């Protein structure tokens, strides 16, 4: 379902859509993003989904266009992996795609 989101207001529509999708996932929830910068609420939703048996996978680029963002992205890995989220880095090149399937 299409939705609109804007940094110009205080609504986090995009995050709410993703959290709802993650919370409703029964079998799998796969995400691909060039920049994994997530809130505590999103981290919690991903970890809870993995804990209840959902196959949660996140794919990020292994080759970056912004070194600082790459380091921030990687700072989330340990906490996610420790709770059963599978994290992959796509290494053939930089991938700017955003994708979610649940």
TrEMBL record:
- Coiled-coil region list: none
Name the Gene3D superfamilies on file: Endonuclease Chain A (3.30.870.10)
What sequence ranges are listed for the domain Phospholipase D-like?
Answer: 18-101
Q: Which GO terms describe its biological process?
A: phosphorus metabolic process
Q: Which PANTHER family match?
A: CARDIOLIPIN SYNTHASE, PHOSPHOLIPASE D
The protein in question is named Phospholipase D-like domain-containing protein
């Amino acid at each position: 379902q299409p939705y609109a989101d804007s940094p110009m207001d205080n609504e986090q529509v995009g995050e709410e859509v993703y959290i709802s999708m993650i919370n409703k996932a029964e079998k799998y929830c796969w995400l691909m993003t060039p920049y994994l910068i997530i809130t505590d609420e999103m981290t919690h939703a991903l970890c809870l989904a993995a804990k209840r048996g959902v196959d949660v996978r996140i794919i990020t680029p292994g080759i970056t266009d912004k070194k600082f963002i790459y380091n921030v992205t990687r700072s989330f890995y340990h906490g996610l992996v420790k709770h059963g989220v599978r994290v992959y880095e796509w290494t053939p090149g930089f991938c700017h795609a955003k994708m979610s399937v649940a």
